[in-house]
Structure formats: structure tokens, C-alpha cells
């Protein structure tokens, strides 16, 4: 779901700046990786320089073409993506996320939370900013797409997934989203706590109802 | 337009301009005859409530003598993404951000109604830092407490709990304050209440005083995001020839004092973000005159570093206090020039905090390194731990000489403690305030058994390591590791002891000792010490005939050790020439805490070769490994270098990788890139990435690391022109080994 891409680093500001990995790729990396390249070769004990197997003949290097594919000695390595110069969007062409589909559920969620928290005005202000930026064409396609996914997860009560998408947007597109994303983050948190409150209340009332019916033969206390 | 009156009015409203003549006489002579000169009245800041500033920088004409700004009068070729300056007719390329423009999607500055337009100049670097900090709020756990202190000429401690108005406590950046003064000024100490006789004691409602400055993320993330967004550069103007005033010493002092008074002995990090050296107040590292440069190694050697001793003392005092409180200090320094890491390094080294050094906050190196601090493990917990104490116990034949790593001594004496110190000694317990799964200490022991005391049959020595720490889930944990190893009589079981030698661990442990010494001894003395140890080791464990260097052999378990020492001698940890004092401090900081595999990479970089002759294989870190038909991948820990041999580079230039019948060449080019990516994806801190080829200027990173077995001095001595000669006078491994063998077999030593 989160994008997996690698962008080149900022060569203008940092010499030899390394490439930038998207949030998806970084979290995929997971736990500590054993460095695969760790072997060394001992220097020869007798002191002569090691003559490598692929000795080039003295004289001008042969500038013929490389050996053609038919005698490929090794299978192509499976890389996790090109390491340089690739544009971010790697998704197949789909219909673009619709602004209303994203904003309506967010505003609905805000309404649900109103009365339960004092910061609704602040969140509302940020949602308005989101709408303004979206309508003004200031948001890139990946951001819009991921927001649509976030809203889906939110509507399905998958709080952790929604939270993860918000994090991935903050990491990969902070310049575009930083002004309003914190409002969305807070909305997810408020919805989550509201939902678990309601669930707890439901459980309590269900338990009380059950208590009144469990023991046959006893008079109900009036 | 019916009359010019309308035209004049519209133009004044839009552009703030009124001309004497709105149609211009076309010749000089005619113009002078019109009596009233061609002139205008300009109101540059005319109010335009309908004109919001655009949030990007203006596009300028590339001709150095022109530099006119892109405007609606310019001719534009939307397909070729070119524009012609209407003043000098230069054709200019649009910057990449304008890739999406078209006739129907014009940027504002090309539209006629925007004949007047206002641009906002972003402070590039500060903006990048602000965004990284805002992003970090999303990565922190919701109940983590955060606070913000900003500093420049003054130091501001921001109050986070107030709604609406932003308030802060301002301190002068020139005056250091004690912890108590800071706590008093911030209102963190309860004032003495006068007792009133008549009234019963009312329960005082003291809101937790620190909550004004430290609040949980889930409560103040919106306020703090806005506060960060509004941060500006220090408003005090910086005159020409001067550095901006930076009161880092006082800011850090206040941060330490604030945490000391509010959350002692709880896991906490003080993260210092700095874009230049401290130039004011205690802890200043350089004055504000730009013409006086910051100290170099040369200055330090000549005792010409005015501020160094005092500044180092200031930061050492802060570092020790912080470690005593169980907190750690991270330093994130991004600037093109030095920032004072040499003086401030104890803050990170004694507390287990991180040190990150970059050119700018607007680089992937800083941004991703900073993100990686918040990585989580397979359980979803942060990979950082706090407030650790390490307690080491030994069986009675051993004593503890000391430890080298990101720790401070807890001064715990006892029967296990040796009088001979190696590293931080005189104790059997150390404190490591900040650590992660790769933090590694070097711990040194002394065997105290008397020479003729017999060893019980099957006797083993034992060591127990007990680490108390606070897990990132706030749970307190204790990890206990108990190990044992057999004793052996050296005279009768030398071969056995030899076979059990771990040359990799030995190399790293000796290297840490060397680097530890280098902090207080002269460079050449450290090298002499290192050499002496190596010679003695070879004398003891080599197989040779006396006075016959050619007979010298080392068993397999020692075969790599001399090479490690050779590369260590050339490493930036012991060779400070060619690095600034800050760079040396940075390299040494990381060396003193990494695990064995990473430390070895730092001592002797890994070199792998990719070619058509077989699968990727490790090759000797030697100039003879640089061949025309190979791609080399070198990992020095701080840099990943991919180097294309001459023939490979020519093939790539010819474009063979794009031809379907040469697909294997495309795979060959891709293989090292994929392996490099695996390293780049996981390493902390993020290394630099250099993709170069034969003859490229960046190839120097490879050439300076490989053993120069072929130099301009001996190119023809070997009789074969294999490999690339290195232009250097450094001694090669062969010469080094020759000397070593001579000295080892000599009975004079």
C-alpha cells in the first residue's frame, strides 16, 4: 500500500548525498540485517602481488563489445528497486482520488467527535486547509491517493493502518502535508478513543442485561 | 478601454505605477522635445490584499549580466520547456519543478494579470529542519513528553501548554546559569508558602510545574506543529564579515537543567540541532569574526586554539551531569563548515547519544538518518533503550581493567577491579544512558593468577555481565550473560591458544585502545605503540627461523591481523591529516560504539568485485584489484563507493545495457547497485553514496583506501602492468610486512 521507491539525494546541498528511500521501503527493511558483504581476502604471505584471475593482456585494452547474453554466467540478481533517478509514482494508471470522497468522511468523523474534545475547531481549520490545497491543485497524485486509502481505513475502523498511512505521508511528503496532517492524525486518535469508549459502554450494558437474566428462579431485585 | 483614464487607474491598482507618458516617444530627440521627461511614480509595497505571495523562489534569466525575472512578456516554448528573456533575448531552460507547465496550465508569473507578483524566499535549510521536526512528531509515541528550546543570540524556552498565544522564557545567551538558577527562573521549584494560623491547610493545587514546558505529544502535537512552522531565523541582523551569534552552550545548559529538575532518572533525550558553531557565551568555539577561521588540527598542535580548552570543559561538565541524571544528548550538526563537534563530542560520547554530521538539513543524509532513530523492531517497539547500568563480575583469577565505549564510570570499587587501567577503569560498573541493539562496549580484563599456581584440571574462568536498563516500552529489564572459557598453560598448549584466537575481535579491541590513546597522546606515539604491539605478537606467535625473514609464517587464525593493523594505521581514526577536528571526532565517535562487523568495516573497508568471470567475490583491498573489466563496490561504513573499471565505463557510455542482446551487461551494472541499496537501507548513520568510474574525480575515495602496492615509484618493479598505480608515497602492505618480518625474526628486539 505504501509506496516503495528510491529517489536520488540532494546533490546540490550535500556532496555525494545518498538516495532517499520511501517510508514503505524503510519499514520493510525491518530488523537488523546481516550485512551480506563481509568477507575479506588475506594478503599473500610471500609478499608478491596477487595476480587476479582476469588478467588483461599487456597493451591496449580490447574495446570490443561485452560478452552477449547467451553466455550469461550468473542469474540476474533480484533487486528491490533501481537505485537512482526514478520518479516517485510507480502505480498503474487509475482514476484519480476524488476530493469529496476523502473530505466527506473526514468531516463526518469530525462531527462524530464534536463535543468529546476541545480541539475540534483546530482540526476543522486544518481540514479546511487540506480542502483548499487539494482544490488548488497543490497536492501531488501520490498524496491524494494515499489520503483516499487512509480514509478507507479510518471508515473501516482499522486505526493502526490509518495511522501508518499518515506516518508514511509525513515521512515521504512532509513539505506538502505538514500543515494539515497533524489534524488528520488527531482525528484518527479521537475516533479510535471514541470507538473504544462506545464499545466499552456497550459491553457494560450488555453485561448488566445479561446479569438480569442469568439466574432463573430468583426474583429480580426491584 | 474607452479612455486612458481607466487604463491608468487599472494599472496603478495592479502595479502601483503611474507614468507621465503612457505611450512612449520612440526616439531620443523627440522625447526631449516633449518637455516632461518619461518618468514614473512607483509604490513598491502598494497594498494588494488580493495578491497572496507565491511560495517559491523567482525564476531568473541565466545570463549573469541580466538575471531578469520570468514575467508575462517572455516568450515561452511549452513543449521544449524553454523561455526567452524579453530583456536580453537569452533562451533559458525552465527548472525541473516547472516540468508540468503548458498553455492551459501556466505558472502565475506568466499570466498577464500577474504583472506584479510577490515571492516568498524560504530559508531552505531551516525549512528542511522544521519539516523534519514536524515529521518526528508523527513518529514519536503519543505519550512521550516533548519540549522545545530555540537559540540564537538569545535562548528561548517555549511554553507549550498555553492555548492561543505562544509564550516563552527568554535567557541571555552570554551568561551561564546553574541548574538551580534555571529551575528557579522557569518556576520549577515550589516557593516557600507562608503559614496562616487561622485557616486549616488547604491542599495546594500545584499543576505539575514542568508541564508548562514538557507535554505529551498527543496533547500538543498541533500546537507544536504550528510553533515549529512559525520559527524564523534569528531576527538580529548579521553584519558583513561576521558570523551569526549562536548561544549553544547556554541553550544546552538550560536543557540539561530543565530535565534535571523535572525528570531525573527517567529515560530522556536532549536533541541538539545546530547549523553552525557556537559563537557566544560559555562553550563558544570560535568568535564572530569570519576572518578568523575555526581551529584546525594545525592550530591545535601549535596551541593556537583559543577557545578549545574552556569550551571542552563546559561541555564535559554538562555531559557528566546529564549522564548522572540518566539522560542522553544527541548532536545533529549540519553545516558546510565545522560546528564544534570536537568540543561537544563528550556530550554524545559520555551519554550514549548520537552524533550526526551533514552538509545541510536539506539532504537525504540528514533526513533519513534522523528518521532511522525512530525505527521499530519486530515487536513494534523503538530500538532505543535508556538508563542502562552494566555490572561486570569475574571469577577470582581475573580482574577488570576498564571499558571503552559510550559510557561513564560509576566508580564502584571491589575485588574484581584491577589497579591497571585500560580505558575507563577503576570500576566494575558503568552507566550507559542511551543505547540501541548495536551499542557495543570493549571491556578489558587482567589475569591475576600467579605464574606457578597450578590450574585445576578442567578449570574455567567465568565472567558475568548484568545490564539493568529501561526498555523503550518503559518496562525495566535486566539482561544477564554468563560466560566461561578454559584456562590453558601457555608453555605446553601454545598451539591450542593460537587456534582459539579471534583475530577480528582482537583487531577491534586493540584499535579501540589505540583510538582511546590518541585522544590524549601524540599521533606518532600511538602509531609506535601499535607497531610495537604488532611486532611482539608476531614474535610470539609467528613460525620462523631466527634472522630469516623469508621463513616467517603466521597460522590461519592470525593471517588477517597484520593487514588490519596496516589499514588501521592509515585510517582516519589515527591519521588526522586530511580531516578537520570535527570530522575526526565524528569518525571516532562512531568507531567507539559499533559492533564488531561494522567496526571492522571501518578499520579495513570491504571490497567486492563484480565481473563476467563469476559471481561477486571479495577481493584484496589493493590497487591490483582495480581492473578495467570489473566493477568494484567498496564499503568504508561512512561511504559506499561503486567504481566502474575503464572498459565497463566505456561499455556503459556506448549504451550496451540498453541493447536486448546484451542484457547480461545490464544485470552486471545493476548487481552492485542492488547490493549497495541493501546496505544503504539499513545503516545508521546513513553513509555517503559515491557512484564513479575510472578517471572520475570521485574515484579518489577508492584510490586512497586501497593498499598502494603499485605506485609511481614501483610500477615497473613487479614486471606486470596489472592494476592501477596509485600516486602516493605511503608505504604499501608489502613493504610494511617486509619490515614487520625483519623485526619479528630479529633477536635484537
TrEMBL record, chain B:
<keyword id="KW-0963">Cytoplasm</keyword>
<dbReference type="InterPro" id="IPR006896">
    <property type="entry name" value="Sec23/24_trunk_dom"/>
</dbReference>
<dbReference type="Pfam" id="PF00626">
    <property type="entry name" value="Gelsolin"/>
</dbReference>
<dbReference type="GO" id="GO:0090114">
    <property type="term" value="P:COPII-coated vesicle budding"/>
</dbReference>
<dbReference type="GO" id="GO:0006886">
    <property type="term" value="P:intracellular protein transport"/>
</dbReference>
<feature type="domain" description="Gelsolin-like">
    <location>
        <begin position="616"/>
        <end position="702"/>
    </location>
</feature>
<dbReference type="InterPro" id="IPR037364">
    <property type="entry name" value="Sec23"/>
</dbReference>
<dbReference type="InterPro" id="IPR012990">
    <property type="entry name" value="Beta-sandwich_Sec23_24"/>
</dbReference>
<dbReference type="InterPro" id="IPR006895">
    <property type="entry name" value="Znf_Sec23_Sec24"/>
</dbReference>
<comment type="similarity">
    <text>Belongs to the SEC23/SEC24 family. SEC23 subfamily.</text>
</comment>
<dbReference type="Pfam" id="PF04810">
    <property type="entry name" value="zf-Sec23_Sec24"/>
</dbReference>
<dbReference type="Pfam" id="PF08033">
    <property type="entry name" value="Sec23_BS"/>
</dbReference>
<dbReference type="InterPro" id="IPR036465">
    <property type="entry name" value="vWFA_dom_sf"/>
</dbReference>
<dbReference type="InterPro" id="IPR037550">
    <property type="entry name" value="Sec23_C"/>
</dbReference>
<keyword id="KW-0813">Transport</keyword>
<feature type="domain" description="Sec23/Sec24 helical">
    <location>
        <begin position="502"/>
        <end position="600"/>
    </location>
</feature>
<keyword id="KW-0653">Protein transport</keyword>
<dbReference type="InterPro" id="IPR036174">
    <property type="entry name" value="Znf_Sec23_Sec24_sf"/>
</dbReference>
<dbReference type="InterPro" id="IPR036180">
    <property type="entry name" value="Gelsolin-like_dom_sf"/>
</dbReference>
<keyword id="KW-0931">ER-Golgi transport</keyword>
<dbReference type="InterPro" id="IPR007123">
    <property type="entry name" value="Gelsolin-like_dom"/>
</dbReference>
<dbReference type="GO" id="GO:0005789">
    <property type="term" value="C:endoplasmic reticulum membrane"/>
</dbReference>
<dbReference type="InterPro" id="IPR006900">
    <property type="entry name" value="Sec23/24_helical_dom"/>
</dbReference>
<dbReference type="GO" id="GO:0030127">
    <property type="term" value="C:COPII vesicle coat"/>
</dbReference>
<keyword id="KW-0472">Membrane</keyword>
<keyword id="KW-0479">Metal-binding</keyword>
<feature type="domain" description="Sec23/Sec24 trunk">
    <location>
        <begin position="121"/>
        <end position="374"/>
    </location>
</feature>
<dbReference type="GO" id="GO:0005829">
    <property type="term" value="C:cytosol"/>
</dbReference>
<dbReference type="Pfam" id="PF04815">
    <property type="entry name" value="Sec23_helical"/>
</dbReference>
<dbReference type="InterPro" id="IPR029006">
    <property type="entry name" value="ADF-H/Gelsolin-like_dom_sf"/>
</dbReference>
<dbReference type="GO" id="GO:0005783">
    <property type="term" value="C:endoplasmic reticulum"/>
</dbReference>
<comment type="function">
    <text>Component of the coat protein complex II (COPII) which promotes the formation of transport vesicles from the endoplasmic reticulum (ER). The coat has two main functions, the physical deformation of the endoplasmic reticulum membrane into vesicles and the selection of cargo molecules for their transport to the Golgi complex.</text>
</comment>
<protein>
    <recommendedName>
        <fullName>Protein transport protein SEC23</fullName>
    </recommendedName>
</protein>
<dbReference type="Pfam" id="PF04811">
    <property type="entry name" value="Sec23_trunk"/>
</dbReference>
<feature type="domain" description="Zinc finger Sec23/Sec24-type">
    <location>
        <begin position="58"/>
        <end position="98"/>
    </location>
</feature>
<keyword id="KW-0968">Cytoplasmic vesicle</keyword>
<keyword id="KW-0256">Endoplasmic reticulum</keyword>
<keyword id="KW-0862">Zinc</keyword>
<dbReference type="GO" id="GO:0008270">
    <property type="term" value="F:zinc ion binding"/>
</dbReference>
<dbReference type="InterPro" id="IPR036175">
    <property type="entry name" value="Sec23/24_helical_dom_sf"/>
</dbReference>
<feature type="domain" description="Sec23/Sec24 beta-sandwich">
    <location>
        <begin position="385"/>
        <end position="488"/>
    </location>
</feature>
Amino acid at each position: 500500500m505504501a509506496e516503495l521507491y528510491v529517489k536520488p539525494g540532494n546533490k546540490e546541498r550535500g556532496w555525494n548525498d545518498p538516495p532517499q528511500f520511501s517510508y514503505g521501503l524503510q519499514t520493510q527493511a525491518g530488523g537488523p540485517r546481516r550485512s551480506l558483504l563481509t568477507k575479506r581476502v588475506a594478503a599473500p604471505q610471500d609478499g608478491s602481488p596477487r595476480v587476479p584471475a582476469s588478467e588483461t593482456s599487456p597493451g591496449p585494452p580490447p574495446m570490443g563489445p561485452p560478452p552477449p547474453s547467451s553466455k550469461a554466467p550468473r542469474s540476474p540478481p533480484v533487486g528491490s528497486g533501481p537505485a537512482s533517478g526514478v520518479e516517485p509514482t510507480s502505480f498503474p494508471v487509475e482514476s484519480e482520488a476524488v476530493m469529496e470522497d476523502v473530505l466527506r468522511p473526514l468531516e463526518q468523523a469530525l462531527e462524530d467527535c464534536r463535543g468529546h474534545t476541545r480541539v475540534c475547531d483546530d482540526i476543522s481549520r486544518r481540514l479546511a486547509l487540506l480542502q483548499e490545497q487539494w482544490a488548488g491543485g497543490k497536492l501531488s497524485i501520490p498524496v491524494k491517493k494515499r489520503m483516499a486509502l487512509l480514509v478507507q481505513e479510518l471508515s473501516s475502523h482499522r486505526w493502526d493502518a490509518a495511522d501508518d498511512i499518515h506516518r508514511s505521508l509525513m515521512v515521504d511528503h512532509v513539505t506538502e502535508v505538514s500543515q494539515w496532517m497533524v489534524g488528520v492524525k488527531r482525528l484518527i486518535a479521537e475516533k479510535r478513543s471514541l470507538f473504544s469508549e462506545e464499545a466499552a459502554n456497550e459491553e457494560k450494558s450488555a453485561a448488566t442485561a445479561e446479569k438480569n437474566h442469568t439466574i432463573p428462579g430468583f426474583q429480580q431485585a426491584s | 478601454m474607452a479612455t486612458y483614464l481607466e487604463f491608468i487607474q487599472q494599472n496603478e491598482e495592479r502595479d502601483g505605477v503611474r507614468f507621465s507618458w503612457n505611450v512612449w516617444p520612440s526616439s531620443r530627440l523627440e522625447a526631449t522635445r516633449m518637455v516632461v521627461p518619461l518618468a514614473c511614480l512607483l509604490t513598491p509595497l502598494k497594498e494588494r490584499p488580493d495578491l497572496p505571495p507565491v511560495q517559491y523562489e523567482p525564476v531568473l534569466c541565466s545570463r549573469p549580466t541580466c538575471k531578469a525575472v520570468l514575467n508575462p512578456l517572455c516568450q515561452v516554448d511549452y513543449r521544449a520547456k524553454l523561455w526567452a528573456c524579453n530583456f536580453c533575448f537569452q533562451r533559458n531552460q525552465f527548472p525541473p519543478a516547472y516540468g508540468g507547465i503548458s498553455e492551459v496550465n501556466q505558472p502565475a508569473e506568466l499570466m498577464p494579470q500577474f504583472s506584479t507578483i510577490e515571492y516568498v524566499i524560504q530559508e531552505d535549510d531551516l525549512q528542511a529542519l522544521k519539516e523534519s521536526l514536524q515529521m518526528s512528531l508523527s513518529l514519536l509515541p503519543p505519550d512521550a513528553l516533548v519540549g522545545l528550546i530555540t537559540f540564537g543570540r538569545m535562548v528561548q524556552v517555549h511554553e507549550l501548554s498555553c492555548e492561543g498565544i505562544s509564550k516563552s522564557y527568554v535567557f541571555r545567551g552570554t551568561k551561564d546559569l546553574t541548574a538551580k538558577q534555571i529551575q528557579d527562573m522557569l518556576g520549577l521549584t515550589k516557593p516557600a508558602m507562608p503559614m496562616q494560623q487561622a485557616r486549616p491547610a488547604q491542599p495546594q493545587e500545584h499543576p505539575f510545574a514542568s508541564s508548562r514546558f514538557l507535554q505529551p505529544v498527543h496533547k500538543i502535537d498541533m500546537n507544536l506543529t504550528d510553533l515549529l512552522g512559525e520559527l524564523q531565523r534569528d531576527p538580529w541582523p548579521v553584519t558583513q564579515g561576521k558570523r551569526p551569534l549562536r548561544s549553544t552552550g547556554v541553550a544546552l545548559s538550560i536543557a540539561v537543567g530543565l530535565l534535571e529538575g523535572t525528570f531525573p532518572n527517567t529515560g530522556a533525550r536532549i536533541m541538539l540541532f545546530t547549523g553552525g558553531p557556537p559563537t557566544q557565551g560559555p562553550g563558544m568555539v570560535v568568535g564572530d569574526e569570519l576572518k578568523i577561521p575555526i581551529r584546525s588540527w594545525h592550530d591545535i598542535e601549535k596551541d593556537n586554539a583559543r577557545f578549545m580548552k574552556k569550551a571542552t570543559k563546559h561541555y564535559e561538565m554538562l555531559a557528566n551531569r546529564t549522564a548522572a541524571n540518566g539522560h542522553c544528548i544527541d548532536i545533529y550538526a549540519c553545516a558546510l563548515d565545522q560546528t564544534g563537534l570536537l568540543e561537544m563530542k563528550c556530550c554524545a560520547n559520555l551519554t550514549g547519544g548520537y552524533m550526526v554530521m551533514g552538509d545541510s538539513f536539506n539532504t537525504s543524509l540528514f533526513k533519513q538518518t534522523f528518521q532511522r532513530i525512530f525505527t521499530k523492531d519486530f515487536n513494534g517497539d523503538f530500538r532505543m533503550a535508556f538508563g542502562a547500568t552494566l555490572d561486570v563480575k569475574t571469577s577470582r583469577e581475573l580482574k577488570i581493567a576498564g571499558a571503552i565505549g559510550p559510557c561513564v564510570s560509576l566508580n564502584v570499587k571491589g575485588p574484581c577491579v584491577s589497579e591497571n587501567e585500560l580505558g575507563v577503569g577503576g570500576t566494575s560498573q558503568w552507566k550507559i544512558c542511551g543505547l540501541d541493539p548495536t551499542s557495543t562496549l570493549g571491556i578489558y580484563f587482567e589475569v591475576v593468577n600467579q605464574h606457578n599456581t597450578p590450574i585445576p584440571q578442567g578449570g574455567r574462568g567465568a565472567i558475568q555481565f548484568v545490564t539493568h536498563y529501561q526498555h523503550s516500552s518503559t518496562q525495566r529489564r535486566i539482561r544477564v550473560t554468563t560466560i566461561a572459557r578454559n584456562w590453558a598453560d601457555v608453555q605446553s598448549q601454545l598451539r591450542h591458544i593460537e587456534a582459539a584466537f579471534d583475530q577480528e575481535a582482537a583487531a577491534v579491541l586493540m584499535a579501540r585502545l589505540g583510538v582511546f590513546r590518541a585522544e590524549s597522546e601524540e599521533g606518532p606515539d600511538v602509531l609506535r605503540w601499535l607497531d610495537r604491539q604488532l611486532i611482539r605478537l608476531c614474535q610470539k606467535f609467528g613460525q620462523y627461523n631466527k634472522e630469516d625473514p623469508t621463513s616467517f609464517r603466521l597460522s590461519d587464525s592470525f593471517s588477517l591481523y597484520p593487514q588490519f593493523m596496516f589499514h588501521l594505521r592509515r585510517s582516519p581514526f589515527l591519521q588526522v591529516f586530511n580531516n578537520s577536528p570535527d570530522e575526526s571526532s565524528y569518525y571516532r565517535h562512531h568507531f567507539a560504539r559499533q559492533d564488531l562487523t561494522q567496526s571492522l568495516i571501518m578499520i579495513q573497508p570491504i571490497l567486492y568485485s563484480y565481473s563476467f568471470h563469476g559471481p561477486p567475490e571479495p577481493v584484496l583491498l589493493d590497487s591490483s584489484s582495480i581492473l578495467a573489466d570489473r566493477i568494484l563496490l567498496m564499503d568504508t561504513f561512512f561511504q559506499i563507493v561503486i567504481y566502474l573499471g575503464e572498459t565497463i565505463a566505456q561499455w556503459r557510455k556506448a549504451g550496451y545495457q540498453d541493447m536486448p542482446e546484451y542484457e547480461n551487461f545490464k544485470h552486471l551494472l545493476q548487481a552492485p547497485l542492488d547490493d549497495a541499496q541493501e546496505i544503504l537501507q539499513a545503516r545508521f548513520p546513513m553513509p555517503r553514496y559515491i557512484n564513479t568510474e575510472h578517471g572520475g574525480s570521485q574515484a579518489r575515495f577508492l584510490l586512497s583506501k586501497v593498499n598502494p602496492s603499485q605506485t609511481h615509484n614501483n610500477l615497473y618493479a613487479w614486471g606486470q602492468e596489472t592494476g592501477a598505480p596509485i600516486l602516493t608515497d605511503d608505504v604499501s602492505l608489502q613493504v610494511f610486512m617486509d619490515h614487520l618480518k625483519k623485526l619479528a625474526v630479529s633477536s635484537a628486539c
